[in-house]
Every structure is written in C-alpha cells, then in structure tokens.
Amino acid sequence: MKKKKATNKGSQSQNETHSSTARVNSTNATTQKLFVLACLRERPHSSNELHMRGIYDPRARIFSLRQEGYDISTTWRYETDVAGVERKIGVYSLLSEAKQ
Hints:
The chain is an alpha+beta fold and about 100 residues long. The chain has a single domain, classed as Orthogonal Bundle (Arc Repressor Mutant, subunit A). About 35% of the residues lie in helices and about 25% in strands. It contains four helices and three strands, in the order H-H-E-H-H-E-E. Strand 2 (about 70-80) and strand 3 form a beta hairpin. Helix 2 (about 30-40) packs across helix 4 (about 60-65). InterPro entries: HTH_proteobacteria. This is Helix-turn-helix domain-containing protein.
C-alpha cells in the first residue's frame, strides 16, 4: 500500500493545529494568523506559549486578527522565560469571532 505524500509543507492537519504541542513551521502571516486563531479557540495563550509554538512575534498576529474584527483581550501575568528570567507577559483570550 502506497502512502500519500504531503502536498503543502507549510500547512498543518486539523489534528496538529489543535494539539497542545503543535508548532507552526511557516513564516507566512496568514498561516500564522490561522494558527494563532486555532490556539485561542482552544484556550487563552501567553505570548511565551505562542512564541514556543513557532510564532516569532505574537503581538503582530494578534494586532492583525483584531484589525479583522476578532475580539481578543489581553491580560498580564508574570512568567519565567526560557532563559530563566521572570517577565511580565501578555495573555491573549478570544472573546468573540469576527463578524461576517
């Protein structure tokens, strides 16, 4: 039995997108926005969490999503980053979808 090859290296399957360990492997802004949106539909995510999942600048993706009409709140908390430094970081929550 032959296996099918993936046709789009930058995209991820539905299951990978919703996994708590999934990462985005694309620098394409649209791909990253969709990934961030899928993450926020699961639960709130901090900027550190999004960064560790492959989103280099989560603030830019959140800004774009807000411009598109998504209601995303930001709260603040302290987290220890990968270097062991405690920092005040944003936590993003999707409050409502964009109106069509």
